Records
---
Amino acid sequence: MPTASSSSAPLAASPAPIRKAIIPVAGLGTRMLPATKAIPKELLPVYDRPIIQWVVEEAIAAGIEEIILVTRSGKEAIENHFDAHYELEHRLERKGKQTILKTVKNIIPAHINIVSIRQADALGLGHAVLCAKKQIGGEPFAVLLPDVLLLDAIGSPHGHSFKAMMAAWQQTGHGQLMVEQVAQDQVEQYGIADVNGANITPFKATAIRQLVEKPNPQDAPSNLAVLGRYLLPNSVMQLLQKTQPGAGGEIQLTDALDALIAQQPLNAFLTTAQTHDCGNKRGYLAASVAVGMRDEGTKEYLQRIVSQT
Ligand code: G1P
C-alpha cells in the first residue's frame, strides 16, 4: 500500500489518535422507497450483511474503538442488529449450527463500544454530527456516511483507503476528507473540494483551499467529490455550533469544514477504491453485484444470470 503523506508540514507532537467514529443513520431513505418504508435503509443487505455492518467493519479495521450512531425513532432495528440476540443464538447453538451462529454472534468485537444518540430534527449532516458533541468529548473524530460502500475495505489487495487516511492523520494531525473524481454533471450531488489546481494523486493528501456543498456544475471549482469518510479535529464541533443553514436549508458539515480551512490545514485524500452509493437504487444494486462477484462461489452464477438477462 502506498504510504500517506501530507501537503503541509507535520505537527511537532504526535496528534491524539482518532478512536471515535460518528455514523449518521437518521435519514429517511426516501431514495430507496418503497423498500425502506418499514426497514432502515442502513439494514438493507449487500450480499450477506447489512450495509451498515460493512461500514462499521471498515471503521473497526482502521482502528476505531467507539461507534456513535446518530439515529432517530423508528430505526431501533439498527441497534438491535449490533446487540446480542439470546434466543436466536441459543436455538442455533442447540441445533449445532455453528457456522451461522458465528455470523450473528459478536458482530462487534468485545473491545468496541457502540452507542446511539437521537437526532430529533432532520436538520442536516452538520447537525447530526453536532448531536454527538458530548459523546466525542475533546477528541478528534471520524465521520463515516453509511450510504457509501468502499470496496477496498472489503478484502481488496490494493489496500484499505480509510485505514491509510487514518495513518495520514496520525502523521500530520491535519483533517482528512476522502475524495474521488466524479463526472462534471454529478458535482451538484456532493461536497466539492477545491485543491487549487493541484495534481492530486491517490493516497497522497493534498491541501484543500475551499469546499462547496452541491455547487451548480458551471460554478464547481473541481470534480473532486467528498464521498463520506472524514477525519476531523475536535474544533469542528465549535464551528458547527456557529454554522448557519446552507444548501437545501440544512446545516452542512461541508460549510463548517470550509470555515476550518481558515484556521488550519485540511487535506483531500484521493481513494482508488471502487465506491457505490447505496442510498439510491442503481448504486445499491451495483454494490450487491460487485460484492457478490468477489465470492468465487457466486461469481460464475452471477455472470450467467447477467448474460442471460
Ligand atoms: C452528504 C454530504 C456531501 C457528500 C455526500 C457524500 O450529502 O453533505 O458533502 O459529498 O454526503 O455521499 P448527501 O448525500 O447526504 O446529500
Note: The domain at 20-308 is CATH 3.90.550.10 (Spore Coat Polysaccharide Biosynthesis Protein SpsA; Chain A).
---
Amino acid sequence: MTDAPPPEYKGPQRVFSGMQPTNGLHLGNYLGALQKWVKLQDSFECIYCVVDLHAITTGPDPENLASRCREVAAAYVAAGVDPKRSIIFVQSAVREHTELAWIFNCVARMGWVERMTQFKDKAGKDAQRSSVGLFDYPVLQAADILLYKATHVPVGEDQKQHLELSRDIAQKFNNDHNAPAFFPLPEPLIQGPGARIMSLRDGSKKMSKSDLSDMSRINMTDDADTIMSKIKKATTDSMPVPESKEGLAGRAEVENLVGIFAAVTERSVEDVLAEFGGKGFGVFKPALAETLASKLSPIAAEMRRLNADTAALDAILKDGAEKARAIAQPIMAEVRDVVGLWRA
Ligand code: TRP
C-alpha cells in the first residue's frame, strides 16, 4: 500500500523573494531577479524583502546597513516593483522572521544544513571561524518564505538548494505537528534566458560585484558610454554569431552575450540568433549595448532620484513593513499554537 498523497495546500498563491542589501547592484541582479519580479506582479501577490538579517551573518556594518537597505529598495522600485501592488520591506522590521527561524532551527536537521554548498563556499577553508548565523542562513531564509506561506519563490540557480531545504522544513513541520497542509511547499521559479548572467570577461564565472575588474560587469548605474565600452571590450571569439543554439556550445562568453540580449529584450535565444546569426560582433555588440543602455538609463535615473528622497523611500518601506506584519503576525500566532508554545 502506498501512502495517500499529502493534502493540497489551499491558501493563496503568493510570491516571496529577497536580496541582500549590497551596494553595487549589477545586470545579473536586474536580469536574474528584478526584471522577473516586476513581471510576476501581473500574476501573483508579491512580497519583496531586503534581507538585512542575512547581511549581518558575514559581519557588522552598523554605519552603512540602513543606507545599503535603502539603496536596494530604491533599485526594486526603480526597476518597476510597484509599492501599491506589491509589498516592499526590510526584513528586520518584521520581528517574526527571527521568531520563526528559531522554531525552524528545531525542525531542520544538522545533516540537512551541513549539506548546503553555499555555506561551504562562503565559509571557505576556515568554517570554524565563521558565524553560527552564516551556517544558519538558509534556515532564516526558509522562515522568510514560510512566514508568509509563500507558494512561489523566484531565485537564481545558486539558491535552488536553499529552496529545497525550505520545502524539507515545511514538510517536516507539517508532519511533526500533524498539520498536513499547514505550510505550502514553496516552488522555485527559475526560468528563461538571463537565469545566469556571467562575467563579461570570463564566461565560466558569474557576474559579481566582488570581481576585481569593473569591466567584468555592467552596473545598474553605468551610463551609456560606459556600457558601450564594456560591451565592446567583452570577451568573444573571431567567429560570427551562430545561427542556432548548437553553435553556442563551447562559446560561453558568446552564449552569455546572446542570453543577455534575449533577457533584456524578453525574446527567446532562438529569436535573437535568427536575427544576428552569421553577423559579426561589430554588428551585434553595438546593438546589445544600445539596448542595455536604453533599458538601464531610466532605471538608474530613478534610482538616483529615490536615493536623494530618503523620506519618500522610508515611507514606502514603513508602509511595506505594516502590510508584511499584517500577513505575518496571524500566521506566527497560528504557528505558536500548532507548536504549543505558551500563550502569552
Ligand atoms: N539568499 C538569497 C540570496 O542571496 C536572499 C534571500 C534571503 C532570499 N531570503 C530569501 C531569496 C527568501 C528568496 C527568498 O539571493
Note: The domain at 214-305 is CATH 1.10.240.10 (Tyrosyl-Transfer RNA Synthetase).
---
Amino acid sequence: MAQALKKIRKAVIPVAGKGTRLLPLTKVIAKEMLPLGRKPVLEIVVDELVSTGITDVMFVISESKSSIPVYFMAYPGVDVSWTVQSEQKGLADAVLCAEEYVAGEPFLVALGDSVISQFGPRHPTSRVLDCFENTDAQSVIIVQKTPRAESHRYGMVHPKRWDGNERFEIDLLVEKPAVEDAPSEYAIAGRYAFDPCVFEFIRKTPPGAGGELQITDSIGLMLADGRPVWGVPLMGEEIRRDIGTFPSYFEAFMAACLSDPEFAAIASTICSREQKPE
Ligand code: G1P
C-alpha cells in the first residue's frame, strides 16, 4: 500500500458503555466525563490524539451521553463528530457505527475510558501510527505486559516475531482468556490502528466473550485471512489506566493529581497527611 494511503488522521472513540460498575456516579454523568484531576478522562484522551497528529474525531455515544458532544463543541485543534450506537452489542459493533465516517480511510480507535501515561517527548500512541505507516500492518495494537492471573480482564496477544524497533508481529489473539489459555503476558491496552478492511471482518464476527461482538475476534479474523497485525508494547514507566471500577478510577485520579504540573506538591501533601499509620 502506498504510504500516503496509510497516513492516519481520523480517530474513533467508543464511549457508549453504561459504566454500571461506577454506579451511582454514572447515573447522570457519563463515565468518560468523570474527572482525572482537572480534566475529564475523555479530554485527556482527545488531547493525546491531537498530540499525535489526529485532526478528526468521532465519538460513538449512547443516547444518554449527549453531554459529550456538547463538551467538545468547538474544541481547539480537532474536528469533532458523533454518532449514536442504539444498542450496546460490543466494541466491534461500536467501531462498525463509524464506518460511514471513516469513509475508506485508515483510522485509529482509542477507548474513551483508558488513559496512557506519556514519558518523553512523544506519546506511546505515536508509535502505533509509526508502526502502521512503516510496516505492512493492517492493524496495530498497543499492548502492556500484564500478570497472567489478570488475563481474564483483557484481550491477550501472542508475539510471533519482533522487529528491530521494539514491536512485534502478532499470530494469535484471545479475548479475556482463562489464565491457562493466555497466549502470553501481553494485554491489549486500548489503542488500535486499522485499515478500513476491518469492517468486512467485523461483519463476519460472531458473538464472543460475554456474548458481545469483540473487536479482538474481528482482528483474529483479519489474521486468519492473512492480514498482518502488529503489537506495540508500552515501555519503561508507560502505563495504561482505565476507570472501569472504583479502585482503577481512584488510581487514575490520584496519578493525575500527583502529576499535575501546578498542583502535584499539594496532592502529594494531602496523600501523606491522609495516610493512616498501619
Ligand atoms: C476492552 C477490550 C480488551 C482490552 C481492554 C483494555 O475490554 O475488549 O481486549 O484488553 O478493553 O483495553 P473491556 O475493558 O471493555 O472489557
Note: The chain has a mean pLDDT of 94.
